Amino acid sequence: MDQSLRITEIFYSLQGEANTVGLPTVFIRLTGCPLRCSYCDTAYAFSGGEKLGIDEILRQVGLYNTRYVTVTGGEPLAQPACNPLMVRLLDAGYHVSLETSGALDVSTVDSRVSKVMDLKTPSSGEMARNRYENIQYLTVRDQVKFVIANNADYQWAKQQLEQYHLPEFCEILFSPVMDVMSPTELAEWILADQLLVRFQIQLHKFLWNDARGK
Asked: Which string of DSSP letters, residue by residue, matches 47-64?
């Protein structure tokens, strides 16, 4: 098996989302994604990048004094060597999280990885790509993220919580689409409905706007 991956960037920043928000983290952004979500903010990772071997990736990660690594994209699982990379990181003692669209099979992801998996909302334009079979592979260390652009997205997300009993076995993230959905309004909906979810804002965008590598 080819143990190299096409990498758009490796960078050190504060985690801007999920349950490790605010922690210094190395991000490994893999190139390529089969989805084209309407709100995508990393279209620059759709193509290009540089092929790197796993040893070189670990060398670059080791330049930073952190135990937290996030493998992101694009869609990381679109590259076959993503899983071997995460295993090597885990074996080296890193806390590894995976940001995935939810459109590809997560059943082979190492159980030590913290999966942050989207369920694509109607406004994304990619709702039909949701792989609901993935839900059975989620555990208490994992998170399901809903990116909310409007009330229709919000109502749909609530239905998924109920239908799949998601809060019973994993953490739920509700995130407003930047400059589209009012964060305050979304927060008020969550409180009014007393949902068992974590409201999140993309911290890195408030700190550095849309600066690449942040």
From this structure: S--EEEEHHHHHHHHTTS
The one-character DSSP state at 177 is: P
DSSP 183: H
- Asked whether 120 and 129 are in contact (CB, 8 A), the reply is yes
CA distance 24 to 14: 4
How many residues are listed for the chain in this entry? 214
Give the pair of three-digit tokens for residue 95: 């806390």
Task: Give the N- to C-terminal CA distance of the chain in Å, as an integer.
Answer: 32
Domain boundaries defined on the chain: 4-208
Between CA 42 and CA 50, with CA 204 as vertex, the angle to 5 degrees is 40
| Verdict on whether the full-model pTM lies above 0.90 | yes
Percent of the chain at pLDDT exceeding 90: 89
- Residue 18, both tokens: 């999920």
- pLDDT for res 3: 87
Identify the CATH number of the domain defined by range 4-208: 3.20.20.70
